[in-house]
Write a sequence for this structure.
């Protein structure tokens, strides 16, 4: 079986998503890949996306929810001797050791919209600008919390931290008109047909 | 079944795999002699791509810029993309009429594995240009297209 060694955490999260779905959100794993979810989010009431059904896809990478800490292997292999530097590490100039930038490799949930949407923090490919999907990722976050945050982002677009420059500009210069466009797109592309 | 998962049990789905490739392509690869990008920024399924190869040194291709079209269908990366040269080229694995890279004559496509990427295809084609059976072949005029 492809999914036989699925981490317990993912199994638990999936069971709970199916048995106690959050209001306005559904997420179910695909049959042939238990790390790949089909997601639907209903446009929040009193937002320009009200009445829309938005399709997303979500993937839990191998490192989900967190990558193994990137510490020198001698420390990693001896977790009980954290403060005892082994002899062979003596004299290393740690300032000259390259420590890679770990953002984007630490187990963040990957998620994007498949339904076209007019929103300053979502680009043409459905990619979402949301801090918890990047540098503010924490292993304490779950599929549910991420999807709730995306739903909240639909209620509160943030044109000051845009992913789509043009849409953000539209939002800032003429919010009423931008909201109308968002409503129009919701009718056109997210009618749930 | 995990198709072509290469021993790992985690299979990155098509779209997320292509998003990774897109980001890598945008950052720029190695010495810049191969590159690629998406043709249609609105295509949510990221099917159509343009690749570029700069002809390798000490070959008839040196200094030439070759454009290719890559098409990633729904079954990518289980199946390889279709690949064809847009710029005219004379090369053993390329169909002379259409510019299509013929899988039977190009090992990477014939023995495709899920982990292979568009970057791998372009890099391997560049190597192929410098192979003994290709490096001295007479070439069509520069700037002509299939």
């Amino acid at each position: 079986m492809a999914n036989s060694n699925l981490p317990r955490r993912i199994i638990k999260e999936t069971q709970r998503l199916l048995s106690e779905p959050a209001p306005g959100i559904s997420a179910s794993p695909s049959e042939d890949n238990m790390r790949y979810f089909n997601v639907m989010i209903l446009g929040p009431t009193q937002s320009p996306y009200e009445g829309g059904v938005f399709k997303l896809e979500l993937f839990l990478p191998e490192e989900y929810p967190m990558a193994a800490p990137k510490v020198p292997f001698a420390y990693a292999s001896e977790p009980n001797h954290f403060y005892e530097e082994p002899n062979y590490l003596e004299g290393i100039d740690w300032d000259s050791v390259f420590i890679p930038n770990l953002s984007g490799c630490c187990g963040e949930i990957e998620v994007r919209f498949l339904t076209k949407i007019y929103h300053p923090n979502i680009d043409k490919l459905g990619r979402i600008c949301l801090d918890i999907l990047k540098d503010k990722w924490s292993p304490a976050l779950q599929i549910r919390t991420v999807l709730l945050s995306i739903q909240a982002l639909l209620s509160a677009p943030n044109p000051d931290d845009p992913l789509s420059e043009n849409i953000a500009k539209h939002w800032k210069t003429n919010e009423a008109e931008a909201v109308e466009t968002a409503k129009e797109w919701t009718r056109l592309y997210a009618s749930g047909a | 079944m995990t198709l072509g998962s290469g021993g790992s049990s985690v299979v990155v789905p098509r779209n997320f795999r292509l998003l990774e490739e897109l980001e890598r392509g945008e950052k720029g690869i190695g010495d810049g002699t191969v590159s690629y990008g998406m043709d249609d920024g609105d295509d949510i399924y990221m099917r159509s791509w343009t690749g570029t190869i700069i002809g390798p040194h000490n070959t008839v291709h040196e200094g030439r810029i070759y454009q290719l079209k890559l098409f990633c269908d729904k079954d990518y990366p289980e199946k390889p993309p279709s690949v064809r040269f847009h710029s005219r080229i004379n090369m053993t694995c390329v169909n002379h009429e259409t510019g299509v890279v013929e899988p039977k004559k190009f090992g990477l496509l014939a023995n495709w594995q899920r982990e292979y990427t568009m970057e791998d295809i372009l890099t391997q084609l560049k190597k192929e240009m410098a192979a003994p059976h290709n490096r001295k072949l007479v070439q069509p005029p520069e700037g002509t297209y299939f």
Confidence is low (pLDDT under 50) at residues 72-83 of chain A. The two ends of chain A are 34 Å apart (CA to CA).
